[in-house]
Structure formats: structure tokens, C-alpha cells
Amino acid sequence: MRVKRRGLLLGASAGAAATAIGLTNWWQTGQADGVPRGSPVAVDLQDLPTGKLLTLNWQDKPVWVLRRSPTELAALAGHEALLTDADSQHSVQPPACRNRHRSLKPDIFVAVGLCTHLGCTPQLRGADGFTCPCHASHYDLAGRVFRVGPAPANLVIPAYHFASDNRLMIGTSA
Ligand code: FES
To answer: Distance (Å, rounded) from C-alpha 143 to C-alpha 113?
Structure first.
């Protein structure tokens, strides 16, 4: 797997110390639709296996790429009554990602790996989704937040597109 241009792979806990102020400022510097953009990062998805979370450094933030299984995608429909914003009406994502799986391609999930509460980095818990270690907010595998924790919104989805079947460009929509 190759990651070009600022494609520094981060460890599971690296980049976890973003502050609430930094996260808020970063959101506010996005485009009019609120979707964060910036110099694109290219990612080769050819060798990305299902279930492996790839973490990239983009705009000094951790950005996740995760390939989800058909079973995991089907499970997204099963807990929507428990979510704060199941339809992503009050969350930040490109318009084309306002769907149940919150992605352009159903299996490939791309998100900013910062909790929308105070900006910590949630941890992947397999098919259970992502759990934030500091205040226990919990997100499903589409980055949709459960009501049980303090996070107010779903994980942010940045602008991205596919230059080809296996080449993902993060930071630009075309
Ligand atoms: Fe994630 Fe508080 S920063 S729950």
C-alpha cells in the first residue's frame, strides 16, 4: 500500500491530542458547505484489507480510511433509533456522503478521526464501531454518533474522490 504526499502513517494513538479549540477552528476554515478541504493526499487502496483502519496525516489531522464488509454495511440499518443524527442532517460531510454509509462507495469509509466532543481520537472496536477513550462517545462504522455519549454530531467526512477504482484522493472533491 502506498501513500503519497504527506502520507505519514500514524500509530493508533498518534494525533490524539487535538484540542477543542483547534478542531473548531479547523471546521470553520472549511468551504461554505463546511466540508474540510486542503492539499490532496493520494491513497492506493489496492492492498487495503477489510477491517484494517488506515490512518493518514492530512492537514495535521488524522484521517481514517476503512474498508467495511457487506455484513458491517448491512448492520448500519439496525441501530438507527439509537443515533443522534442517523440521517446526518446536522453533521459535516460532502452532500454525496449524506447516506446511511456516509461514503461515496459503500465499502470505503473516509472520516476525520477526531471526536466531535473535544477532539480526542476514538479507537476502532471492530464491528462495534469507534469508542472515544476520554468521555465514552461511541460511533458506528459510518461515523454516526450514538446518543449515549456527549459528542453532538457524527464524525466529519472530508472532501474526497476516487481518481480510479483503487486510487483515493483526500482533500478534493474532483
Ligand atoms: Fe470524545 Fe469527549 S472527546 S467523548
So the answer is: 9
Q: Confirm or reject: Cβ of 101 under 6 Å from ligand 1.
A: no
Instruction: State how many domains the chain has.
Output: 1
Structural domain containing residue 106:
2-170
Q: Does residue 118 line the site of ligand 1, with CB under 6 A?
A: yes
What was the pLDDT predicted at 4?
43
Tell me the pTM: 0.83
Q: Are 149 and 38 in contact (CB under 8 A)?
A: no
Ligand 1: distance of its center to the CA of 18 in Å?
A: 11
Q: What is the CATH number of the domain that holds 166?
A: 2.102.10.10
Residue 145 in contact with ligand 1 by CB distance below 6 A: no
Q: What percent of the chain has pLDDT over 90?
A: 77
